[in-house]
């Protein structure tokens, strides 16, 4: 592949607000397959890391998309990136690009092409994600019973958690919420902990549905963060509009009152 072809592929997945370039280093690196240079907006790919066959080409495209995600993240951040480049926001951008590339047949999702891996994936999801999630949800149910019993005997549940069970209070609270919210164990224990921390029922439900359909945790978290930020901005705009309308009403009332005051003062002078 040439620099121009790779850049054309990336732009076909998503447009970039800022100009960038693709550079094939012609080198082999034992550390990284590619790098994004923020100051020059260059996507550097160590093309000798990849074999000259469909598998190697697919990995090259994957790496190019990864570095392109850094560029788009840089665009979102106004042209600069923090020292911590691999944030949840970055991974959300990257995963969205991969999904688009797969739909366009630009990048091949190799995970679905191995029957052996698919079988193992099903076992992992059932035995270690769903079963573990179910166990943690049941744990929350039993903790809730223990809390009721502590109340009956006049003991503090927090003290029971600290000194009898010897577990963090936050872990106990999240487990109880997993049971109370009736979370789906299929998303796994870690995602259940995240969902248990979402207070808004609609947000929690939407996040759980997204996770259940295969969205990455970073994509779900970023989407929720963006929705909340948008809601705050909308609320501020609504408040501004309400205040502006109230200002107009008050100004009209003041004009009316001043006019009436002048009339009263004029009438008093005649008496």
Could you characterize the architecture of this molecule?
By secondary structure, this protein is mainly α. It has 2 domains: 3-112, Zincin-like, CATH 3.30.2010.10; 115-215, no CATH class. It has helices at 3-13, 54-76, 88-103, 115-152, 157-165, 169-180, 189-196, 201-212, 217-270, and strands at 21-24, 34-37, 42-45. A 3-stranded mixed β-sheet has the order 1-3-2. β2 and β3 (42-45) form a beta hairpin. α7 (189-196) packs antiparallel against α8. The chain is flat and about 105 Å long.
Strand order of the largest sheet: 1-3-2
Intertermini distance: 98 Å
Tally of extended strands?
Answer: 3
Task: Characterize the overall form.
Answer: flat
CATH class of the largest domain: Alpha Beta
Largest sheet: 3 strands, mixed
Q: Which regions contain 5 or more consecutive residues with pLDDT less than 50?
A: none
Succession of helices and strands:
HEEEHHHHHHHH
Give the CATH H-level superfamily of the largest domain.
Metalloproteases ("zincins"), catalytic domain
The structural class is mainly alpha
Strand content: under 5%
The residue-averaged pLDDT reads 90
Radius of gyration: 29 Å
CATH fold title of the largest domain: Zincin-like
Helix content: 55-70%
């Amino acid at each position: 592949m040439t620099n121009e072809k790779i850049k054309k592929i990336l732009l076909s997945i998503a447009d970039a607000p800022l100009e960038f370039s693709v550079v094939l280093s012609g080198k082999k690196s034992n550390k990284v397959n590619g790098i994004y240079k923020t100051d020059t907006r260059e996507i550097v790919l160590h093309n000798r890391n990849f074999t000259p066959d469909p598998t190697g080409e697919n990995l090259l495209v994957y790496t190019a998309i990864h570095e392109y995600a850094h560029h788009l993240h840089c665009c979102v951040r106004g042209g600069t990136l923090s020292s911590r480049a691999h944030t949840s926001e970055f991974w959300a951008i990257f995963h969205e690009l991969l999904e688009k590339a797969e739909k366009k047949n630009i990048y091949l999702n190799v995970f679905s092409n191995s029957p052996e891996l698919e079988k193992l994936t099903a076992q992992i999801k059932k035995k270690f994600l769903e079963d573990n999630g179910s166990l943690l949800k049941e744990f929350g149910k039993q903790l809730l019973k223990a809390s009721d019993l502590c109340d009956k005997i006049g003991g503090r549940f927090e003290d029971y958690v600290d000194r009898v069970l010897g577990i963090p209070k936050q872990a106990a609270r999240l487990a109880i919420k997993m049971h109370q919210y009736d979370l789906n164990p299929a998303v796994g224990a870690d995602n259940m902990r995240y969902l248990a921390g979402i207070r808004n029922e609609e947000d929690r439900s939407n996040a759980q549905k997204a996770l259940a359909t295969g969205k990455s945790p970073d994509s779900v978290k970023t989407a929720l963060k963006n929705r909340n930020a948008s809601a705050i901005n909308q609320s501020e705009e609504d408040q501004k509009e309400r205040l502006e309308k109230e200002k107009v009403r008050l100004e009209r009332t003041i004009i009316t009152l001043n006019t009436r005051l002048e009339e009263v003062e004029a009438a008093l002078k005649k008496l």
